[in-house]
Design a protein that fits this description.
Helix 4 links the parallel strand 5 and strand 6. The strands form 3 sheets. Strands 4-5-6-7-8 form a 5-stranded parallel sheet. A 3-stranded parallel sheet has the order 1-2-3, with helices on one face. A 3-stranded antiparallel sheet has the order 9-10-11, with no helix packed on it. The chain contains 11 helices and 11 strands. It has a domain of about 210 residues: Metal-dependent hydrolases (TIM Barrel, Alpha-Beta Barrel). The longest helix is centred in the middle third of the chain and has 17 residues. The protein is an alpha/beta fold. It is globular, with a radius of gyration of 19 Å. About 30% of the residues lie in helices and about 10% in strands.
């Protein structure tokens, strides 16, 4: 990994990251979105996405439209945290203040509530944005909802490791379709997410998530709705250029091109040439490079440097 979009749990997390950055010891580029903070406080500070430098940037704010969406046994449970008017007022204020919102959704009801809030905010103040629905790509189950979200410019986040970790769980919440090719066909640039702090630590590795989306196999080695597989190339885009564009970073990250940050992951094997039947258990995080310096070498030490890709041959 070379960049992480992260959700700090406290001011101490941000202070620690800042101290590492000032000391030149921050091994990854971080784009952070606090969620246990006051909207008024953020608006009063005047922070906007991109505030910071190439290593540590403010992104916006995370909120929960609903919660886990189940009762702990895999059965669906509606768990909305807002009423419609409250959410509209909150999203409108954040949007007018220039903040990017990451909205957690785990049900079609929450997806529609978030869509209505963004729609109302855009009526008050039209303009480009990057509001996104965390897990929206996993739970949207209606073509009508997809087209509405697309037309509103809302980005969808998917968590492919759920296929592996939860695909075999019985109940009314799981399995869910996670119909990844359909949003892509509808024009979405799906953003890949790990949810590693919320569910499964193994899901942190991007290659593992790509493998889950391509192979679609559960922890019990059962195929899971294999007709919904995506291609290896689409999987890579979810964790590179599509993710970068979803955070206003497409001009600097997500691909190798002149003028962009020289970040590139390296692997001993080409994933598209690996036998699909060996995924996802064979997927491991390869050594990575941030601006030309190794961030995870064989000795376990981490470094980072600053640099951009030069033009020419």
């Amino acid at each position: 990994m070379t960049s992480v979009h992260t959700i700090p749990f406290s001011a101490a997390d941000v202070a620690t990251d800042h101290a590492l950055q000032r000391a030149g010891q921050l091994p990854l580029r971080l784009y952070y979105l606090p969620h246990q903070v006051s909207l008024d406080a953020l608006l009063d500070l005047g922070l906007r996405p991109g505030f910071g430098n190439e290593m540590l940037q403010f992104g916006g704010m995370k909120i929960f439209v609903d919660g886990t969406g189940h009762d702990g046994y895999g059965n669906h449970r509606l768990d909305l945290k807002w009423d419609a008017d409250e959410l509209i007022a909150f999203v409108s204020r954040a949007h007018e203040g220039g903040l990017q919102l990451w909205m957690h959704v785990t049900s079609p009801s929450a997806i529609r509530m978030a869509a209505a809030a963004v729609e109302a905010a855009l009526r008050r103040r039209p303009g480009p944005h990057r509001h996104r629905l965390a897990h929206g790509g996993d739970f949207v189950d209606s073509g009508e909802d997809m087209r509405r979200l697309r037309d509103l410019g809302i980005r969808l986040v998917t968590t492919p490791q759920f296929i592996y970790s939860q695909g075999g769980i019985p109940g009314t919440r799981c399995p869910r379709p996670m119909c990844l090719p359909t949003p892509v066909d509808e024009g979405f640039e799906l953003i890949g997410g790990s949810d590693s702090t919320g569910t499964v630590s193994d899901g942190m590795a991007p290659l593992f998530n790509i493998a889950c989306a391509v192979r679609r196999q559960t922890r019990g080695a059962h195929d899971f709705l294999t007709e919904e597989r995506i291609t290896v190339e689409e999987g890579h885009r979810m964790f590179s250029i599509w993710a970068a564009r979803g955070a206003f970073e497409g001009a600097d990250k997500g691909s190798i091109a002149p003028g962009k940050l020289g970040d590139s992951p390296c692997s001993r094997a080409t994933p598209s040439r690996c036998p699909r039947t060996s995924w996802p258990r064979s997927a491991r995080t390869p050594p990575s490079w941030a601006a030309g310096s190794s961030t995870s070498g064989d000795d376990g030490r981490a470094t980072a440097a600053s640099g951009r890709v030069q033009g020419g041959r």
